[in-house]
Amino acid sequence: MATLDLDWEDVRDQLRLWREDNTRHSEEVIDMWTYCLKHYKHKLGDERWMVEEQVVIAGLDCFRLDVAEPCLISINEQFPGSLRVRKLKAMRLEALERFDEAIDIYDSIIRQDETNSTARKRKVAVLRGQGKIPEAIRELTEYLKKFMSDGEAWQELCDLYLKEGDYSKAAFCMEELILTNPHNHLFYTRYAEIKYTQGGLENMEMARSYFSQAVKLNPNNMRALYGLFLSCTHVASSSKSTVQKKKETQRLAAWALKEIEERYSKCRTNTMEGTNIFETFGSLSLTDKA
User: Fold this and answer.
1) Measured between alpha carbons, how far is 232 from 34 in angstroms, rounded to an integer?
2) Dihedral of CA 50/54/60/66: which sign?
C-alpha cells in the first residue's frame, strides 16, 4: 500500500490539511492512521487528540468500528464529559442504528449549550434518517431562529418541505438563499422549478423570470434554459395571457430552444469526435499501444 511509503510527518501534515479544508477523505484517513500514523501517535503532542477525533469520524463514516472505537476510548479517557466526546458517542450510536439513544445525547448537549450547532444539525439528520420529516422540520426551524445565516440549513429545510409537498414554504427557503447569495444561478434555478411545480399563470411567469435570471448569470445552465423554454410555452399557451405577452414569451421560448439545440449539437459533435478517437485506439494492437 502506498501509505506504507509515507513518512509519518507527511501523513500528519496531510490530515491537518484536510481538517483545515473541512473535508473528510474517510477511507484515506483510515488507511493513513492504520498503516502509519497509529504507530507514531506519541509524537503528535496535543495534536494527537484532533487526529484521533478525525479518525473516529472517518471510522464511523466507513463503519470501521474496529478503528473508531479505540480512538474514541482514548479521547474519552483524556477528556471525560467533554461535549465533543459526547457528540462522537452519539455519532457511534447512529452508526449502530440506536437512534433514540443518540437523540437523547444530542438533547443533553443542546440543554447544556443552546448554541451548539453541530448537535442540533446531527439531531435533524437522525430524524430525517428515521423518516420523521415533520419533527425534522420543527427542529431545523428552531435551529434557523438562532443561525439564520446558515445557507446549508436553509437548503436542507427546503428539501424537507419539498418532501412534504409544501411548495410555498420551500419557495420561501429559496428566497432567503437568494437574498444572501444573489449571484448563485443554482438558487434561481431551483426557486424557478418550485414556482413552475406550483403551477398557475402567476407562478409560471415568476418561474420564467427566475429561469431567465439563472441563464443570465450562467448561460451554460442547461436546466435553466430548458425550464425557461417550458415556462414560456405555458405562459404563451394560457388563455389569460394578453396578445402582447404571448408574442414576447414566444420569442423568448424560440430563443431558449435555439440555445438548447446549439448546445446539444455541439455536444453531439464532440461526442462523435471522441468516438472516432476511441475507434482509432481500439484498432491498435496491444503491441502498438505499448
Assistant:
1) 58
2) negative
The SS3 of residue 181 is coil
Buried b (16+ CB within 10 A) or exposed e, 21-52: eeeebbebbbbbbbbbbbeebeebeeebbebb
Residue 91 has pLDDT above 90, yes or no: yes
**What is the value of pTM for the model shown?**
0.80
Return contacts of 4-13, CB within 8 angstroms, 24+ apart. Answer: 4/35, 4/36, 6/32, 6/36, 8/36, 8/37, 8/39, 8/40, 8/43, 11/36, 11/37, 12/37, 12/44, 12/47, 12/51
Residue 146 main-chain phi, psi, to 5 deg = -100, -25
Residue 205 predicted with pLDDT over 60: yes
Q: How many angstroms separate the CA atoms of 255 and 249, rounded?
A: 10
Question: pLDDT tens digits, residue range 26-71?
Answer: 999 999 999 999 999 999 999 999 999 999 999 999 999 999 999 9
The answer to whether the beta carbons of residues 8 and 38 sit under 8 Å apart is no
Q: Count of CB atoms within 10 A of residue 158's CB?
A: 24
**Structure confidence by residue, pLDDT tens digits, 97-145:** 999 999 999 999 999 998 899 999 999 999 999 999 999 999 999 999 9
